[in-house]
Amino acid sequence: MRPFAIARICVVATVFAAAPAAAQAPDTILVNGKILTVDQQFSTREALAIRDGRIVALDTTANIRKLAGRQTRVVDVQGRTVIPGLIDSHLHAIRAAQTFATEVNWIGAASLTDALGRISEAARTMKPGAWLIVAGGWNVQQFKENRRPTQAELVAAAPGNPVYVQLGYGWAMLTPLAYKALNITTDADVPSGGKMERDASGKLTGGISGGQGAIIALFDKLPRPTFDEQVDGTKKFFRELNRLALTGVYDPGGNNLAPDDYQAVFKVWRRGEMTVRVAYTLCGQTPGAEFEELKGLAAMMPQGFGDDMLRFGGLGERITAAMNNNNRPTSAEKEQYYQIVRWAADRGMTLTMHWNNDASVGQLLDIFERVNKDVPIAPLRWSIAHLNDASAATLARMKSLGIGWTVQDAMYFGGDGYVQQAGADAAKRVPPVETGRKIGIPIGGGTDAHRVASYNPFTSLQWFLDGRTVGGTAIRGPEETPDRAGALRFYTIGSAWFSFDEKRRGSLEVGKLADLAVLSKDYMTAPVEDIHTIESLLTLVGGKVVYAAGPFANSQ
Ligand SMILES: [Zn+2]
């Protein structure tokens, strides 16, 4: 017995002695890369080491290899470019995710033929007779045919399915089976503000046009995915974002996003299946009753509550219906809004606010300045979304309040219309991100997907650099065009600021979360017109592989 006991003690001693050394070895090292760290100097490194989900070293390949232990996974990226995981600072991800498993996606389709092919494909692969819904995220100029689909084309693509195709928030095309299922036969059956479209000869085209409210109400008549489909859609949508190098989003809430709509993402989080870090926000739902609703919802939700995968990020972009897209709010409407944001400030809450144009944004800034007299708002990191024509004076006011600006590629789809409306000269400075950067306000990149824009961050990054609309018109001038490093900063460390995460992620530095993507092409040297074709080949979130393709397909 005695020798055995001694032997056991020895083994235990050895394990104890070895434990600290073993814990020092990285879980994963990534070598032979062109790693764009997006640190202060925008420095490039060859290799990095990851332990317990964080970056523990960045160095040459030779030096990082020396850190590896027997258990360390070595990923040789063979000269490829590695970037910090991208963060979209204004993506309606929770809403897009709910329906992702039950929708047909037209983002990036280069022709109407290709788009219709996706409808036919869905008719084959989805349940017989299933609704085929394109909820947005496309634009006619992306198609080489440069036009919308006709009803006959949709019927030909999927004769046995009800088909619904929405364009932005102004138009939708439905097939006869869809009309039948929704019981729409005359204009009286269309939600108010919308009407059935007729061609020059007065014949119904199958389209419905109308204002945003009408189109949202029409969309809400479509069958909702079941809860299981929502959970499935959420997981699939996050993987789709991972495919495009995204590892984080700030979700601004928005129209018609009720507490029930958050349950799918909450379930994915509870199961530990999140592959994108989400900051979520609350929006008012019922016109006039927003304050009571928000007080109730936020009562048990302190700012920042959650963890690194899912965190409460304050109030979303639609705080009251009265102040939503309203250039001339009444004093009563402004007072009601003031009461809410003052309450938010007292509670230490972040908020992001949707505002479309510079001419009327002063009314919002007046309110923020009024709050700021009593409660400094700079530490709360409030932000304004959109504001594509922001003047230097507005940006300076935002700077002095400590307010950030989330910028989306709205002009990618909307630029040609903007040129017609405001003129080519005005369009040259839209959006004035270089002015904003020089003034020193925090700027985040993003898209506003998925109804009004594509969620592809590389489409948005390319648009930052070339200022071209989807139809190919270059409208932005060089004065407001960032360089590649600058655009990447907006989409990483810039976006991280809005959820107080710039010290945890947004760049690849020692101590930060290991969120990164190995790209299919070099973002820094690829021809600008090819940037939208970049994808991730390997995406890590907290050091874990969440997407792997091509040469890395087996590393999951
Ligand atoms: Zn918005």
Short recap of the structure:
The protein is α/β, with parallel strands linked by helices and about 550 residues long.
Describe the structure.
- With 556 residues, the chain is α/β, with parallel strands linked by helices.
- 35% of the residues lie in helices and 18% in strands.
- It has a six-stranded mixed sheet with strand order 3-2-7-21-22-23, covered by helices on one side. It has a five-stranded mixed sheet with strand order 9-10-11-13-12.
- α8 packs across α9, α11 (331-346) packs across α12 and α12 (358-374) packs parallel to α13.
- It starts with a helix and ends in an 8-residue tail after the last strand.
- Residues 317, 354, 385-386 line the site of zinc ion (ZN).
Descriptors:
556 residues; 6-stranded mixed β-sheet; 18 helices; 35% helix; globular
- Global geometry: globular
In the sheet with the most strands, the strands line up as 3-2-7-21-22-23
Largest sheet: 6 strands, mixed
**Gyration radius, to the nearest Å?**
25 Å
Distinct ligands: zinc ion
Tell me the distance between the termini: 46 Å
Unreliable spans: 1-22
